Amino acid sequence: MQNLALFAAVFLACALVAEVVLRLMGYGNLEIYQPDLKLYWRLKPDQDCYTKVDRRPVHINSHGTRGAEFSVEKPPGTVRVLSLGDSRTFGWGLKERETYSVEFGRLLQERLKSSGATGNRVEIINAGVNAWSFQQMLVFYRDVAAAWKPDYVLVAEGNLWTQFSEKNSPEFAEKFMARVRLKNLLRRFALYHYVVEVKLNDFYARHRTKFIPVDPKQDALFKEQQQSDPNTAFREAIEGICQVAQTNGAVPVLLFLPRLDELTATSQVPIRAIKQDLAARFQTPLVDVTGEIARGGKALYLDADPVHFNAEGNAIIARKIVASIRLTQ
């Protein structure tokens, strides 16, 4: 028992030292999520943290969105933009000013000034949340963000794997809440960040197909929440966002942000086809940056990441958005 106690004490002491050293090296302090029975997870309000990739500073305001504080009631003379999406919108591995949402706001402000509308102030609400699906975006916009009265609603990409929605059973939602709480607990430790999300994540990325089936329907972990016809579910969610936007006097702007492999796809990409159809139906802009991104190719994505764009890629997206919309104010 004495040897066991000595071993435990030495182990805890080593873990404590490692935790302190890793924190001094910049690990730990990742974003924390708030469990939600409808949204499953959302960013915990009022936190300052860092992105897991490249350790970029992140401020989450009191409304649980990335960026500066804002009032629920839109100030007079303000053009408010709500930006919906997953980690590509949130700004995976980017400073806040490098995200396409903030850059778009800056360019839109310049456009308003050049048009003589100097009284209008552009306000960007970056509501991107890592791994959110289109269904989660719909619920968030309808139940929370519609009250913020945005003039434009940018609808970017969603996580096609986690098809979480309010149609899942309450039992599944409750079960998932425990996972969110556990993940939050683990992410508070620098040891977890370094060992699991940095070192083992490299191994996981190299051997991903050994852990996750290629077909989402074969995923035993989330089998009960997979849709029998995912594309129809995606269409219904994006359509719902457009309907809520137009009902509330906002202009929905659909974005197609291609993955690296989609730049050279020979067949139609399902999500792009869905957004093209809905853009025509709702007579709203579709911003497809495939052509512009294809010219830069891999150089416009984060290193060893075929999904998330770097600062230059985000700047291209922002320019294409501002060139594609028609000012309503």
Description:
This protein has 329 residues and is α/β, with parallel strands linked by helices. The chain is built from eleven helices and nine strands. The chain has a domain at 46-158 and 213-324: Rossmann fold. 43% of the residues lie in helices and 13% in strands. The strands form three sheets. Strands 6-5-7-8-9 form a five-stranded parallel beta sheet, sandwiched between helices. Helix 3 crosses helix 11 (311-324) and helix 4 runs parallel beside helix 8 (230-247).
The helix tally amounts to 11
Q: What is Rg?
A: 21 Å
Which strand order spans the largest sheet, edge to edge or round the barrel? 6-5-7-8-9
- The string of secondary-structure elements, in order, is HEEEEEHHEHEHHHHEHEHH
In the CATH classification, which architecture of the domain at 46-158 and 213-324 applies?
3-Layer(aba) Sandwich
Separation of termini?
75 Å
Compact description:
This protein has 329 residues and is an alpha/beta fold.
Question: Topology of this protein?
Answer:
Blueprint: H1 2-24, E1 33-36, E2 40-43, E3 47-50, E4 57-60, E5 78-84, H2 87-90, H3 100-114, E6 121-126, H4 134-143, E7 152-155, H5 170-187, H6 190-206, H7 208-211, H8 230-247, E8 251-256, H9 270-282, E9 286-288, H10 290-296, H11 311-324
Helix pairs in contact: 3-11, 4-8, 8-9
